[in-house]
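Case 285 in the screening queue. Each case pairs one protein sequence with one candidate compound; here the compound is adenosine monophosphate. For every case the pipeline is the same: read the inputs, emit a complex structure as tokens, and attach any notable structural observations.

Predict complex for case 285.
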Amino acid sequence: MELLTTRRDFRDALDRARAGSRRVGLVPTMGYLHAGHRSLLAASVTANDCTALTIFVNPLQFAPGEDLDSYPRDLDGDLTQASEAGADVVFVPTTEEMYPSPVRTTVRVDVARGRMEAAARPTHFDGVATVVAKLFALAGPCRAYFGEKDYQQLAVVSQLTTDLDLPVEVVGCPIVRDADGLALSSRNAYLTPQERAVAPTLHAALVAGREAVLAGERSPARVRELMAGLVRAEPAFTLDYAEVVDATTLEEIADDGVLAGDLRLLVAARLGVPRLLDNVGVHVP
Ligand code: AMP
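Case 285 output:
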């Protein structure tokens, strides 16, 4: 496994792989790897000949006052996991390497503008889209693996790739959970034992929402209220949103509308220090 720190070496390594007719898979992360990240690596290793993991805590996607400086880091542990998962290349640039001069070009993707994550973190997705566009430009033609855990981010990255004709196939991968349902996240490290004990409530609320839809509930308002009520019933949570949207466009379904087709239920809530995000899919035939 090659550990690379410069953009030039990263670009050269993946150009060389393609020159040798090896298919390239890319797994962008912020590090502090867990089984969710490892599932993306496994998907890439299965489908490609050369898997590149990137680890970069991207300042552009953090607003002032967010956890940029305290974001958990463990490079040695990450490298061990990457090697065991079969990664061929790991790219770990410094901030100065990624952004050598003041950033004057950013990418803005209009997905779910002003709603859900885009409402809670208004500059976040522009920062994500900008760093992903840079990583795709450096990596060149490849498949890129993203988790459904960050479902809105996956939609942003897919839209970015389509709109800018980037030579990348974006592959979405299922959410990896702990046995009690909590979606794995690097930020779960911030939870106290008491908070960790109640954290699965978020997933339980989504499952209840999905069960209601599968049992015939067709009112978006009632599904939102059901999920919101279950999260609010656990006083340690501060609910941010409980939503049901079109799974492809992330368009809101009006409260008095009728649920149909491929849907995504999404919740976000603060629990102690971290905001936890989770989502599930449901199909109404
Ligand atoms: P992060 O390091 O948090 O930026 O995440 C890097 C990638 O891993 C993103 O595409 C995430 O959606 C994905 N990811 C994070 N947690 C999970 C999980 N529990 N299951 C599947 N993918 C995940």
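Case 285 observations:
- Residues 124-139 form the longest helix (16 residues).
- The beta strands are 2-4, 24-29, 50-55, 89-91, 142-147, 168-173, 237-246, 261-271, 275-284.
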